[in-house]
Write a structure and sequence with these properties.
Number of helices of chain A: 22
Order of helices and strands of chain B: EHEHEHEHEH
Number of strands of chain B: 5
Oligomer: heterodimer
CATH superfamily of chain B: Cobalamin-binding domain
Distance between the termini of chain A: 58 Å
Largest sheet of chain A: 5 strands, parallel
Number of strands of chain A: 10
Largest sheet of chain B: 5 strands, parallel
CATH architecture of chain B: 3-Layer(aba) Sandwich
CATH class of one domain in chain A: Alpha Beta
Number of domains of chain B: 1
CATH architecture of one domain in chain A: Alpha-Beta Barrel
Strand order of the largest sheet of chain B: 2-1-3-4-5
Strand content of chain A: 5-15%
Helix content of chain A: 40-55%
Chain lengths: 555, 132
């Protein structure tokens, strides 16, 4: 008898024993499921991995298919970038918060813009009323961007900007600020989110219809591969898909489906996959089910490597590597007993580290209530530092590899995500699947299912539907002073009075002409922002040519 | 046949977080109400106009951007200006509790924070309709 048969025999014998034990000690539930609702078996053994070439599927770190991570030595060489998403009120106040975070040992910046900025409206636009400086910093022109990065040498930090529809404009402003600091564009490191497809699906800050939006994105790919070579030109985001309610497997599937659409669009525009491929980056969520989340990150890497190699013929190893940022799950935070969120965030952050993330944002405990205070942001950052320096999780590469459970989960998520990818392909790709509402419907169904499980008590959320206490009103929440909006509008008026209007007009005219044709939009956008044309003015020119996206509403 | 309760679920302001709005919309529909969801980025003017046009009994506002103190009262003011007194206005989202009193003083009948079961909102609507 060989080893396999021995194992089978002993597992069968064990199962027989379980049957007897269940009579006496029934299990807590009839069925056990992951955070995403996938079934969980009582025990995982090597038999669960039978018939698969696990050596090839798992591989080694820094080697295809990158299941174990994209770098050879992972965190033994360099820890992940600790990058807290921050920004609120005015450029001055955000600049102060950035300097504070850098002083506390944070290693990269992550800029949150307010909603008018994200949707390409100046602070004096009627729709901006009440929103200026609320969820991020208000940026109307290059002048604000100069203030935002005042005293922060742009050749020494990497900066991530959560900006999508008007990403080209904010990137142009960043390049222009660097120029003024004497830093050339090829020295810049950072990321723009620039992922419009998930805006249509889950996040909502779209401006233009899909066609011209995809053009803007490929124009950025083309421009940066020549002029800003160290810039991550897109951060293909599953984060918001998950926040909107998707399962872990749907998060992987719909994110990679969007990724496929971007690569296909760029290839169609004549770009070489191995030229822009290495600059693609990803952004995932981390929820509470530790093992499922680790498996998700590993499965995503394996799937992307194969997709890039087999579907797009990429040869450069860097094109095959799925590099990603992680943020802990905002929707998992409770407004009830908010201190408990520190623990949730720690588990989620640990999953991201065990899953091999390249950078990490940990949420603050008070984010179900308001923007975080400085104190709660510090706890969130300290959580990462404790994982990095005390937990031991960073001392060896991919420590959960070979766990029968984690490998089985990795395989399952890969299979489930592949099935969704096939369905999206059948619908004609991500853009079509989104236009038809397929992706949105799938996510909404999962969100609703989850909510009903919580309400029925099938799913325990500590402090929310179990272990509740009577609580007082939370104290000391951060509030954005309403005068921020007025001040920002005054600043904008001042700028418009000071600048050379003829220059602005000429630059905007040129931008309109290029938008109507087929040229790359980055150079005229750069010229426009250098002339201190405002974000709203630049976006209005593009709205005039491209039109605006009108979603179909369903629930 | 009894007329169904008609609810306009609306997203004022610019934030794109409508998971909650959609879950509520669906829960109300599953409870037998007629639900219209406006979609994102609706101005108070658009919301009030839609509510009147759709003959809504309830306007359920959802916002997560922090602009609630500005936008919710705009909705109730516009309703009052149009002489509409029988539409119940409720709100939800990431709204600090210390703002609840202010919003209530402005005519928002109830504010539901994160973690509220949909059943609680349904119960509130049924108990507080201004039309019978």
């Amino acid at each position: 008898m060989n080893a396999d048969e021995n194992l089978k025999k002993s597992v069968d014998a064990w199962k027989a024993k379980v049957g007897a034990s269940l009579q006496k000690h029934p299990e807590r539930r009839a069925q056990f499921v992951t955070g995403s609702g996938a079934p969980v078996e009582r025990l995982y053994t090597p038999l669960d991995l039978e018939g698969r070439d696990q050596a090839a599927e798992i591989g080694l770190p820094g080697e295809y298919p990158y299941t174990r991570g994209v770098q050879t030595t992972m965190y033994r060489g360099r820890l992940w970038t600790m990058r807290q998403y921050a920004g609120f009120a005015s450029a001055e106040e955000s600049n102060k918060r950035y300097k504070y975070l850098l002083g506390q040992g944070q290693t990269g910046l992550s800029v949150a813009f307010d909603l008018p900025t994200q949707i390409g409206y100046d602070s004096d636009h009627p729709l901006a009323a009440g929103e200026v400086g609320k969820v991020g910093v208000a940026i109307d022109s290059l002048a604000d961007m100069e203030t935002l990065f005042d005293g922060i040498p742009l050749d020494q930090v990497s900066t991530s900007m959560t900006i999508n529809a008007p990403a080209a404009v904010l990137l142009a402003m960043y390049i222009a600020v660097a120029e003024k600091q004497g830093v050339s564009a090829d020295k810049l490191e950072g990321t723009i989110q620039n992922d419009i497809l998930k805006e249509y699906v889950a996040r909502g800050t779209y401006i233009f219809p899909p066609g011209p939006s995809m053009r803007l994105i490929t124009d950025i790919f083309a421009y940066c591969s020549k002029s800003v070579p160290n810039w991550n030109t897109i951060s293909i985001s599953g984060y918001h898909i998950r926040e909107a309610g998707s399962t872990a497997a749907q998060e992987v599937a719909f994110t990679l489906a969007d990724g496929i659409a971007y690569v296909a669009a760029a290839v169609k525009a004549g770009l070489d996959v191995d030229e822009f491929g290495p600059r693609l980056s990803f952004f995932f969520n981390a929820h509470n089910d530790l093992f499922e989340e680790v498996a998700k990150f590993r499965a995503a890497r394996r799937l992307w490597a194969a997709l890039m190699r087999e579907r797009f013929g990429a040869k450069n190893p860097k094109s095959l590597m799925l590099r990603f940022h992680t943020q802990t799950g905002g929707s998992t935070l409770t407004a009830q007993q908010p201190d408990n969120n520190v623990v949730r965030v720690a588990i989620q952050a640990l999953s991201a580290v065990l899953g091999g993330t390249q950078s990490l944002h940990t949420n603050s405990k008070d984010e179900a209530l308001a923007l975080p205070t400085e104190n709660s942001v510090r706890i969130a950052l300290r959580t990462q530092q404790i994982i990095a320096y005390e937990s031991g999780a960073a001392e060896t590469v991919d420590p959960l590899a070979g766990s029968y459970y984690v490998e089985s989960l990795t395989n399952r998520i890969e299979e489930e995500a592949s099935a969704y990818l096939k369905r999206v392909d059948d619908l004609g790709g991500a853009v079509k699947a989104i236009e038809q509402g397929y992706v949105q419907q799938e996510i909404q169904d999962s969100a609703y299912r989850y909510q009903m499980e919580v309400e029925k008590g099938e799913r325990v959320v500590v402090g929310l539907n179990k272990f509740q206490i009577d609580e007082g009103r939370p104290e000391g929440l951060l509030r954005v002073d309403p005068v921020v909006g007025e001040r920002q509008v005054a600043r904008l008026r001042e700028l418009k009075a000071k600048r050379d209007d003829a220059k602005v007009k000429a630059a905007l005219g040129e931008l309109g002409a290029v938008a109507k044709g087929e040229g790359n939009l980055m150079p005229p956008i750069l010229a426009a922002v250098r002339s201190y044309a405002t974000l709203g003015e630049v976006c209005d020119v593009l709205r005039g040519v491209f039109g605006e996206y009108r979603p179909s509403v369903m629930f | 046949m009894e007329r169904k309760i008609r609810v306009l679920v609306a997203k004022p302001g610019l934030d794109g977080h409508d998971r909650g709005a959609k879950v509520i919309a669906r829960a109300l529909r599953d409870d037998g109400m007629e639900v219209i969801y406006t979609g994102l980025r609706q101005t108070p003017e658009q919301i009030v106009q839609a509510a009147i046009q759709e003959d809504a009994d309830v306007i359920a506002l959802s916002i997560l951007s922090g602009a609630h103190n500005h936008l919710f009262p705009r909705v109730t003011e516009l309703l009052a200006a149009k002489g509409v007194r029988d539409i119940l206005v409720i709100g939800g989202g990431v709204i600090p509790e210390e703002d609840y009193d202010y919003l209530k003083s402005k005519g928002v009948a109830a504010v539901f924070g994160p973690g509220t079961p949909t059943a609680a909102t349904i119960e509130f609507i049924r108990a507080n309709l201004k039309r019978s």
